[in-house]
Amino acid sequence: MNPYSAPETSEPLAIDANSPFAHLDFEQVKKLYYRSCNLSCIAVLQLLGIVLICVSLLPALRTNSSALEGPESVGYVIGTLSVPLLLLVSSVGIFKRTKWGRILCIIFCILSVLTILGLNILGLLIGLAGLFACFGSPQLFGPNRYRHGYLKEEFKLRKAAMKNAKKARSR
Question: Is the dihedral of CA 122, 126, 131, 132 positive or negative?
Fold first, then answer.
């Protein structure tokens, strides 16, 4: 017997048969819960990106700035302001767990990975984490999605049940 191996239970956990998670084991619930947390984190990071983009635009938007003169400046302003707007729409879609939010998140994560090409490690990691979370858990999006609050509750219940079962075995 290996004392460092994962605990094994001979008794099944008491799972409500009416629960939408009844067909999932603890590891699957845990994986979905952590990916749901990752998606919320990606949405918050996108919102922070919006703030950073807008703050970086402030010097160019001053009234005495010569950065916005000429016909090419209109395209620059429209292009630069469209990115935060799309990030905002993507963040709302991720928080609401809509199918279109997942698609926008995948697009922005791919762009984050491709445009940076490893020069910005933080952007690369955020893009990869977002892709991993979006592709690995399609059941978190859409009308029949698993909601984060329910996942959190189920995860905590099963974790407590496993801990109690482990204590009962050790007595």
Answer: positive
* Spatial separation of the C-alpha atoms in residues 23 and 2, rounded to whole Å: 30
Is 116 in contact with 15 (CB distance < 8 Å)?
A: no
* Tens of pLDDT, residues 44-95: 988 888 888 778 777 766 655 555 566 566 676 677 778 788 888 989 999 9
The length of the chain is 171
What sign results for the dihedral spanned by CA atoms 17, 23, 25, 27? negative
- Per-residue 3-state assignment (H helix, E strand, C coil) for 44-101: HHHHHHHHHHHHHHHHHHCCCCCCCCCCHHHHHHHHHHHHHHHHHHHHHHHHHCCHHH
Q: φ and ψ at 2, to 5 degrees?
A: -90, 120
